[in-house]
């Protein structure tokens, strides 16, 4: 919250939000303006979208994905939504309700895919069956189904709601381990190629506090709760670390990530190219793969044979936590 009596930098009316990294306060109207500018800048800077694109937005029912869908529509893009039912107990049921309500209120098309119905497993079961952290099965399933839904539906671009906090946290994790392969691929745009649609992240210049504020100002209802299986994961720890640095030195988070894109990513481009060339095609589903069967098809085999595991068991068990 801004200090009592603080004024918007642009119009000098009472401010509703303070943004230390911009060293300024903003009223509702000029805050929205700033968000739009940041999104337009990301889209232009990285050639993310054109008005001719057929856009599919992956929506989780959370603030980021609903904000990006709203912003793209406001900016004049035509975009449908994709919701994946991950089967994470009540959390998934409620997140689906938010995504559906947003689409229904605006007459938008929302494609829905339920893991349990279509592939015979859910994320808690996959976590237990693979004996790995839930986020690993979750991320793998989402990435595969985003690609498949976009290609099946004839969309030219798949949009996700990843924000600056998400990207900076992943960057910190990859940098701490010097994961060169991951660093080379950590871009806000991944171009289309055989078997994969173009993928873009228009919110990389906005923090999660800003996307939440966008939803509040715009009157968008979103699921506030975090995924119940996220507690204790490395990603959240890195976000806290970056927030502590940001509090000491406002602007550090944006500089860390955006300067990586500008100065470091070009040096890694050749590496990313080599990795792409080395991929084969999955015998089962035709997706690009490191071996004969892709990681998703292997996950489906392992998880669909396992008896269903309720999310509460995974949360209590601790064994699948990082
Ligand atoms: P997360 O991996 O949960 O940090 O989410 C990153 C992005 O993936 C979100 O901003 C959405 O665009 C997308 N996403 C996450 N969960 C879902 C879901 N259940 N269905 C569709 N898209 C999702
Ligand atoms: Fe990782 Fe939900 S499974 S945050
Ligand atoms: Zn103003
Ligand atoms: Zn496959």
Notes on the structure:
The chain is an alpha/beta fold and 322 residues long. It has a single domain, classed as HUPs (Rossmann fold), CATH 3.40.50.620. Helix content is 52%, strand content 11%. The chain contains 13 helices and 10 strands. The strands form 3 sheets. Strands 5-4-3-6-8-7 form a 6-stranded mixed β-sheet, sandwiched between helices. The protein has a two-stranded antiparallel ribbon with strand order 1-2. Helix 3 (89-106) links the parallel strand 4 (79-85) and strand 5 (110-114). Residues 316-322 have low confidence and may be disordered. One zinc ion is lined by residues 282, 284-285, 287, 294, 296-297. Adenosine monophosphate binds at residues 58-60, 64-65, 82-84, 86, 142, 160-162, 166.
Give a topology summary.
Layout: E1 17-19, E2 24-26, H1 28-45, E3 55-58, H2 63-74, E4 79-85, H3 89-106, E5 110-114, H4 115-119, H5 123-130, H6 134-152, E6 157-159, H7 164-176, H8 180-185, E7 189-190, E8 198-200, H9 208-218, H10 234-248, H11 252-277, E9 280-281, E10 288-289, H12 295-304, H13 311-317
Parallel strand pairs: 3-4, 3-6, 4-5, 6-8
Antiparallel strand pairs: 1-2, 7-8, 9-10
Helix pairs in contact: 1-9, 2-9, 5-6, 5-12, 7-10, 7-11
Bound molecules: adenosine monophosphate, FE2/S2 (inorganic) cluster (FES) and zinc ion (ZN) (2 copies).
């Amino acid at each position: 919250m801004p200090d009592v009596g603080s004024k918007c930098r642009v119009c000098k009316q009472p401010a509703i939000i303070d943004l230390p990294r911009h060293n300024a306060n903003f009223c509702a109207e000029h805050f929205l303006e700033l968000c739009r500018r940041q999104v337009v800048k990301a889209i232009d800077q990285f050639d993310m979208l054109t008005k001719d694109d057929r856009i599919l937005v992956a929506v989780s029912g959370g603030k980021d994905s609903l904000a990006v869908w709203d912003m793209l529509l406001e900016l004049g893009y035509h975009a449908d939504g994709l919701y994946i039912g991950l089967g994470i107990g009540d959390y998934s049921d409620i997140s689906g309700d938010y995504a559906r309500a947003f689409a229904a209120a605006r007459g938008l098309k929302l494609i829905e895919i339920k893991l349990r119905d279509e592939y015979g497993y859910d994320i808690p079961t996959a976590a237990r069956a693979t004996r790995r952290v839930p986020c690993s099965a979750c991320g793998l399933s989402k990435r595969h189904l985003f690609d498949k839904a976009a290609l099946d539906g004839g969309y030219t671009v798949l949009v996700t709601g990843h924000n600056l906090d998400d990207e900076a946290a992943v960057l910190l994790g990859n940098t701490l381990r010097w994961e060169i392969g991951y660093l080379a691929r950590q871009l806000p745009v991944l171009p289309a190629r055989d078997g994969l649609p173009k993928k873009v992240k228009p919110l990389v210049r906005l923090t999660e506090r800003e996307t939440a504020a966008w939803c509040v100002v715009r009157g968008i209802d979103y699921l506030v709760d975090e995924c119940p299986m996220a507690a204790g994961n490395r990603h959240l720890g890195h976000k806290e670390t970056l927030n502590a640095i940001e509090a000491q030195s406002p602007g550090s988070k944006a500089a860390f990530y955006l300067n990586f894109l500008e100065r470091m990513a070009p040096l890694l481009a050749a590496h990313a190219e080599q990795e792409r060339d080395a991929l084969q095609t999955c015998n089962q589903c035709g997706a690009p793969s490191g071996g004969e069967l892709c990681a998703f098809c292997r996950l489906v085999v392992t998880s669909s044979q396992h008896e269903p595991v309720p999310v509460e068991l995974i949360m209590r068990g601790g064994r699948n936590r990082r």
